[in-house]
Amino acid sequence: MLLAILRDPTNNQIVESNLKVVVPTDSIHQPLQSLALSGIAFALGPTLGLTLSMSLIVLTGLPIWRRALLTLIQERRLNVDFLDGLALTIAVFRQQSRTAALMTFMIHLGDVVRERTARQSRGHIRHLLEFHSVMARRISEDGTITMVTAESLSADHTVLIIAGDLAPADGIVISGIAAVDQRHITGESIPATCRPGDVVFAGSSIVEGSITITVTEAGADTVAAKIIDLVESAPVGETRIQNYAEQFADHLVAPILGVNVALLMATGNVDRFMSLAIVDYGTGIRVAAPTSILASMTKAAREGILIKSGRHIENLAALQGMAFDKTGTLTTGRLAVLDIKTFTSNISADQVLRLAAAAESELRHPVAKALVSHARKTLGLDLPICDNIEFVIGFGVAAKVSGHDLHIGSERYLRQLGISTKKSQAYLANLERLGHIGLLVALDGTLVGAIACSDEVRPEASEIMQGLRSRGIKDLVMVSGDREGVARRIAQSVGIQKVFSEVLPHEKADIIRDLRMANGPFAMVGDGVNDSPALAQADVGISLVDGADIARTAADVVLMKEGLHLLLPAIDISRDALKLVRQNYSIIAGANTLALALAIPTGLISPSACTLLSNGSALLATMNAMRPLLPNMNSISSSASFVNS
């Protein structure tokens, strides 16, 4: 059960290459085989007989001895591997098969856990941006259109992009007009209207219309590809929590061995020498920390939280601050109707909504989706049939309903049609101040109403901010590429006071770096391609399940259920994991220190008793480490009595 999450080859997204690879093997199969064989020798030793059991132990002990010798010869130092090898050698020569089998089993268990966690690299992300694999409509000099791969494009090529396409390269619009969704690059929640002279980024989605572009950058030179380079070059540190105790144990090897040899020369007591050689902080430590972390990662995964390594659990537990993207993170990324205003007494707000939704019902623009969704949810009625629907990109919609002329769009659009908008000016000015979108509705040339839309704030966002503050994470920040008014309104509505707005992707990364230096461990929560450099720069990058592929890859933690609900459980699980690791260190250090205290001055403890204390503490710590996998284990502290006993 413990290793199931590691053995599943589909779980590639939860592992990464920032762990130190301790066992220099080419495949996971060798330590797995050693683990299995040593487990058989331990469990079935009496049944197999001494000869076969010891043969299995020697076979599985070869990697341990080899590692100890390599460290001794190549690095010219003693470490915990040397003590492991020495203790195993003594156990083999004394034909203590159960003791030797248990030692090899626990050593290989630690190796398997660490190596499997380290096998996957976060560097292989270039295939995740969809535009690399799309087909492009390249226009030749004679006007013919040829379907080619995006990878084959180069500067100065001419490409046609229609509704539903992804832009295959960066380029400048030379003809046409289109609504372009560039939120993963710019962070804007509303599709931009692109006309001749405007820039389009690779990976952007064409929502409505069609455009022809001249390619300026393709492939690795696009903005999206450069974002990937920023992600790959971000600094990645080692996992301290899984290495610190092991280094501590390594530093104890030489003193313990020196005392052991001195006592042997002074007393000639071989049993005392064996006892001290068997006392081994490293065997338990080698397993206890990674097993505790892995069990906590497994618990988190069961709750829908993918934490990619132990380093990120450690950093989550130590967070001092957290930064949030706006669009798609603090908001749903979907527009919602906030208000409907009427400017005439003979048409109600419901009628204004019904007319607008009918005209927009055939369109895919986010505003259209918001109007139709709100109308059907609020009114519960079928929409009237509209004829001659015409979408004027960047302005609005014209249609006929029951013989009447209907226009929905911006103030500028209605003015161009000669329709007076004087009644709406104060209302629109207030919407602009609040960062909302205002749509005007005119019937037969007369302004009849206005509809306010805005990006919908996640309902749980404010509660999450309160929960973070109650956990001591008080420095909460918004970092957004959107306009200042929009960003500040959303931030204030959820309880965030500090706002960075209108920032580009690389500027987001710079802001996160500065926040880390000023405040300590800092997290970044985002969902777009434009958030990826900041996610990589943060101590902990957190992405949502519906975010861009590159954001989920750059992130250290992925919340696999929609929304921010899992953010607080991720922190709680991480903090409980560190409590569990400290408990396990206490178990191992306490038992082995007791064995040393009894063996060094008096020799009152036998080799068998040392084996029981040393390996028993490792086994107890391993069992304790797996407690997060037990049912109803919601808090480590709730069962502290288990450790105390």
Task: Explain how this protein is built.
This protein is α+β, with helices and mostly antiparallel strands and 645 residues long. The chain has 4 domains: 4-121 and 237-303 and 571-644, no CATH class; 127-225, Calcium-transporting ATPase, cytoplasmic transduction domain A (Distorted Sandwich); 315-331 and 458-563, HAD superfamily/HAD-like (Rossmann fold); 333-456, 3-Layer(aba) Sandwich (Calcium-transporting ATPase, cytoplasmic domain N), CATH 3.40.1110. It has 24 helices and 20 strands. Strands 1, 2, 3, 4, 5, 6 and 7 form a 7-stranded antiparallel β-sheet that branches. A 7-stranded mixed β-sheet has the order 8-20-19-18-9-16-17, with helices on both faces. A 6-stranded antiparallel β-sheet has the order 10-15-14-13-12-11, sandwiched between helices. Helix 2 packs antiparallel against helix 5. The model is unreliable at 1-28, 117-128, 230-239 and 635-645 (pLDDT under 50).
